[in-house]
TrEMBL record:
InterPro entries documented for this protein: DUF6435
Organism in which the protein naturally occurs: Vreelandella rituensis
Coiled coil: 10-56
Alphabetically ordered keywords of this record: Coiled coil
Protein name (record): Lacal_2735 family protein
Length: 56
């Protein structure tokens, strides 16, 4: 019965993933390629977590 109040961890990770991609795009537009690479790498790590949640 209380399961309806639990947050979906996949949804939270998806939002964090989208924020990282947005920040990476803005860093790229500003010419900061090092920050772009770092943020993209972090976004890819979040994506792998999302995909592992989908499998289980």
């Amino acid at each position: 019965m209380l399961s309806i109040f639990k947050r979906d961890p996949k949804k939270k990770l998806q939002q964090a993933y989208e924020r990282k991609l947005q920040a990476a795009m803005e860093a790229s537009r500003n010419g900061d390629m090092r920050a772009n690479a770092t943020l993209t790498e972090e976004a890819n790590a979040l994506l792998s977590k999302i995909q592992s949640l989908e499998k289980s």
